Amino acid sequence: MSVIKVSNLSKTFKVKLKEKGLKGSLKSLVKPKYKIIKAVNNISFEVEKGEIIAFIGPNGAGKSTSIKMMTSILFPDKGSIDILGLDPVKDRKKLAYEIGCVFGQKEQLWTHLTPYDNFKFFGAIYDIPNSKVEKKINELRELFELDEFINTPVRNLSLGQRIRCEIVASLIHEPKILFLDEPTIGLDPVVKENIRSLIKRMNKEYKTTVVLTSHDVGDIEKLCKRVIIVNKGQIVLDDTMENLKYHYLNKKIVEAKMNTQVNLDDEEGITILKDKGYNLKIEVDTKKKSVSDAIKLLNPDNIVDINITNIPLEDIISDIYKDGDK
Amino acid sequence: MRKYLYILKSEIMTNLQYTFDLIIGFAGYIIHIFIFLNLWQYIYSDPNELINGYNMNQMIWYVIITEIIWTAVSGRALSKKISADVKSGNIAYNINKPYNYVEYSLFNHLGGTTVRFILISIIGLLLGFVFLHGFPPLNILQILAVLLSSIFALLISTLLIMALGLFAFFVEDASPFYWIYSKFILVIGTLFPVEFFPQVLQPIIKFSPIYAVSYGPAKLFVNFSMNEFICIMISQVAYLIISFIICHLIYKKGVRKLNVNGG
To answer: Residue A228 is inside which H or E element, if any?
Structure first.
């Protein structure tokens, strides 16, 4: 059953243009010029219940705008959104009870209050009876390991602790869908890992659908089974993680350490990335040349050490971004 | 309604963490009162003399009460916060919560106003009592009436200033509106009662919001009359409804043209 249905969604922004200098300022005062920016351009997709889906793209690709339209913060110009059978434009208040949002770059907690008071506050806002809030807080504080700082004012928490509290605050009303806009931004690797596993655990426990945007490939790789890549307001790829890897994994990186110098030239299916005499790094396109053929070119007898790896997901994604730019 | 009371409660909790800072912030209030204490003592050659129907003590009490309301509302911070919310796009993150931004901001701000109002009333009444040797004669019911009209005044003042802040939806900088409003209130509402202005202006002032947010409670405190109380109540209820509707209208219109870029 799909919980999110987006079809032909578009959103444009009108941006005031100003020529440089004082003269430009005066000019724009008299006759302002506007530029139309298509932030989101005709995108469609569906999300199933319980899925964790990544929404990724370079800065300004339109992913945050899309999320904001799905969470009824912005109104779309064209197209329709159906979230749990509700229209974010018309049923804003109803929808608010069904979804939770965390914007990594915006605080929604009250910084002078403790996380506990904050959770009670969110409970009251979502009209949840007191006893139920109490139960929910206890449940979530265990799941998200908040015991240490649940009574420390939010302003004194570290960023990692705060994000954990932000996520908990958005879960108090048991939303069916959770939107996470860059939840791990600015966090160190250990905390990132911790937050990822918590999100995963939450998804398992409550079957919450998660829509996530991130620039961190680790987030996507570890959390999501499906990924939608947007660029310039359009979807350039909507596929499972496995397919994404599989499609782009016909390229392998071969790093070899040799005991004699080899002179290798670029040829069909082989690109030399680095050649320092004894140390070589080549990219093999397995569609055109098998890895074993590539190794034969190197002369296997002279190989001291060899390492064959996939192209990092990060590179794959930035390749896709660049393709979109062309 | 429970949620809004909870917002109020949370904001009171926040403010109570900073009572000391709040009290320090009242220094300006105390200085104001001292200036007017001296000024009116200088102007009145005889404290029992009446100027436009006010004796010296009444005049000073008038300023004490109007200043309590003005300081408790702390309008500059409010209008700044609202326009910053609009400009930064922060307001957007309140849209997808199950409350209305106008009511949210109102109750949020009232939390601080409540704490400030209580603290500054204590200071103001104490100052008046010490320097003027006693309170104006009021019975319990009249005190409750003054309190009621003060609460109305706080509510209306907050809503009006919110409306000014919400203008940020349509103009680059909404602070000039607040500036003009605050000067009007200072001169027409806070320092001098309506009776001090020329006859032609008086009816205009009586129909303006200044009568509801400033003059009303102070006039009742210094010289209570049932007639005046009824007039003030009518004006306050009307302005409460009007300012509430204005805030909602501006917000409703503004939100539609909201742009939130980046992030």
So the answer is: strand A226-231
| CA–CA gap between residue A166 and residue B10 (Å, rounded) | 17
SS (H, E, C) A264-320: CCCECCEEEEEECCCEEEEEEECCCCCHHHHHHHHCHHHEEEEEEEECCHHHHHHHH
Residue to test with chain B: of A15, A73, A155, most B Cβ within 10 A: A73
Question: Looking at the predicted complex, does its ipTM rise above 0.85?
Answer: no
**Tokens in use for B189?**
């509402």
How near does any CA of chain A get to the CA of B182, in Å? 28
Confidence of residue B263 (pLDDT cuts 50, 70, 90): very low
Q: Where in chain A is the domain with CATH 3.30.70?
A: 250-310
- Where, residue-wise, is CATH 3.40.50.300 in chain A? 2-8+41-245
Per domain, the residue ranges of chain B are: 2-256
Residue A86 DSSP one-character state: B
Q: How confident is the model at residue B260 (pLDDT cuts 50, 70, 90)?
A: low
Interface of B with A (CB under 8 A): 2-3, 6-7, 10, 13-14, 17, 90, 92-93, 95-99, 256, 258-263
Collect all residues of chain A within an 8 Å Cβ-Cβ radius of residue B90. 106
Buried b (16+ CB within 10 A) or exposed e, B87-97: eebebbbbbbb
Instruction: Name the token pair of B109.
Output: 């701000």
- Note the pLDDT tens digit of each residue in B49-69: 888 889 999 999 999 999 999
Which pLDDT value is given to residue B1?
78
- Written out in words, the top-level CATH class of the domain with range A250-310 is alpha beta
Round to the nearest angstrom and report the end-to-end CA distance of chain A: 36
User: CB-based contacts of A261: which residues, under 8 Å, 6+ apart?
Assistant: A277, A278
Any chain B CB within 8 A of the CB of A107? no
A13, A95, A110 member nearest B14 (Cβ): A110
SS3 A113: coil
Q: Smallest CA–CA separation between A171 and chain B, in Å?
A: 13
**Angstroms from B113 CA to nearest CA on chain A:** 17
pLDDT at A106: 81
Are B70 and B190 in contact by the 8 Å Cβ rule? The answer is yes
Per-residue pLDDT tens over the stretch B20-37: 888 888 888 999 899 989
CB A99 within 8 Å of CB A177: yes
Instruction: Count other Cβ atoms within 10 Å, centred on residue B169.
Output: 20
A74 contacts B92? CB cut-off 8 A: yes
Could you tell me which CATH number the domain at A2-8+41-245 has? Answer: 3.40.50.300
Each residue's pLDDT tens digit, A61-75:
888 888 888 988 888
Q: For the residues B117-128, what does the mean pLDDT come to?
A: 94
**Does the beta carbon of A213 lie under 8 angstroms from any beta carbon of chain B?**
no
What pLDDT, on a 0 to 100 scale, did the predictor assign at position A324?
Answer: 62
Residue B125 pLDDT exceeds 90: yes
Closest chain B residue by Cα to residue A99: B96
A residues 251-290 lying closer than 8 A (beta carbon) to B: none
Residue B17: list chain A partners with CB under 8 A.
Answer: 112, 153
pTM above 0.90, yes or no: no
